Amino acid sequence: EQEASSGLMTSDDYYSGSVSAAFGGNTCIIPFAAQHRGQSLKDVLETYHDRAGPKSVVDYSFHLIISDPTDTVLHQELPKAIEEGITSFKVYMTYDRLIVDDGQMLDILAVAKKQGALTMIHAENNAMIKWMSGKLIDSGHGAPKYHALSHPRTAESEAINRAVALAGFLDAPILIVHVSTEAGARIIAKARYDGRKVFGETCPQYMFLNAKQMDLPDMHGAKLCCSPPLRDRASQEEIWRCLQNGTFQVYSSDHAPYRYDDTGKLHAGPNPDFPQIANGLPGIEMRLPLLFSEGFVKGRITLNHFVALAATNASKIYGLDHCKGSITEGRDADIAIWDPDVTRVVKAEDMHDNMEYTPYEGMEISGWPTTVIQRGEVIVEGNELKAVRGAGEFVPRKTFDSTGMPGRLVPELDPDKNFGVDLGI
């Protein structure tokens, strides 16, 4: 139940989306609360609380999307949001209606660092994408599959490199979201090796889908349009390798469902060029079954690594580990019980989101969550939902914990090295 910058709404509300999450073994979600230009964060958060509170069957928080970092937003509303337990922001380096420039990003990073928040970054070079998209459209290549060409790998790696440099300048913690390329992952790995406060995230579509699957008749390739786009099989293997070696600490659904009709993918008409197609895929219900089946069952990752990617890492990074992410005395009794012997073929009709297709149709999955417990109460048992609307609670999160990540100030910001100038960074 999130508005795109175009005004388009995702197909799920907080009921259908949270039910889908629960059946996929998730007991807590952190969807996005999106600020668009001219909106106050106070109004945005009130709107999203009103949407989620009466409907969500699982616990929830919000990541705040910041697109209009005015002085009021930076110095009053962001600190207030952090005080209320919303301790992660997302910024975009692309999309004309969402993009923040480098100076604005520095402003946001500085506030986040000072107040104890984590900045999440959609890192793609906007000019490169617009240039490439224009060339493709002008040459008659507007079909959905050409979306995969319009966001070059270099657009991702350049923007990740720039984001890491900006954050490193301020010694601010960042998380690069939905990484799709080896080159981008290598930049993250090097930054971490150098002691930077940088985390990496990837998503199911970059591990289980590829661009060739977009080469479909009519407009059906639109179902697989997302950004960054699907890559090739070689990239899939590299993303797996980076998941295995710890370059990616977070594995998220990137759940952004749009139906294949005029309310979603085809909102601009029955035959739009790819820039007019709504970007995003459904994924929250399949996030963990895919990783369990293709990761743990097939021996790519250990069971402990699966648990870390499923829950523990995200709970620590996002400030939820005081109540979520581990089975520990004093924590919420959130437990997903898996049957490793269950085999299912993925079908859209079996999903619980408000979609008529799944990009993982026909995949055979080994292992499935059969019982899901939230705060000691069973919310899913087999194929039956036990939770009621509004059973989920808002979870205030802690500020970012940089323990073990000491970081360092650049000389220009270090009073011991810059003639004693203290800019309060």
List keywords for this structure.
single chain, 425 residues, alpha/beta, TIM Barrel, 7-stranded parallel beta sheet, 12 helices, 13 strands, 14% strand, hydrolase, Amidohydro-rel
Structure, explained:
This is Amidohydrolase-related domain-containing protein. Belongs to the metallo-dependent hydrolases superfamily. Hydantoinase/dihydropyrimidinase family. Keywords: Hydrolase, Metal-binding, Phosphoprotein. One of its GO terms (cellular component) is cytosol. This protein has 425 residues and is α/β, with parallel strands linked by helices. It has one domain: TIM Barrel, CATH 3.20.20.140. Strands 2-4-5-6-7-8-9 form a seven-stranded parallel sheet. It has a four-stranded antiparallel sheet with strand order 10-11-12-13, covered by helices on one side.
- The structural domain count equals 1
Largest sheet: 7 strands, parallel
How much strand?
A: 5-15%
CATH topology: TIM Barrel
Family: Belongs to the metallo-dependent hydrolases superfamily. Hydantoinase/dihydropyrimidinase family.
Pfam family, one: Amidohydro_1
Protein name: Amidohydrolase-related domain-containing protein
InterPro entries: Amidohydro-rel, Hydantoinase/dihydroPyrase, Metal-dep_hydrolase_composite, Metal_Hydrolase, Metallo-dep_Hydrolases_sf
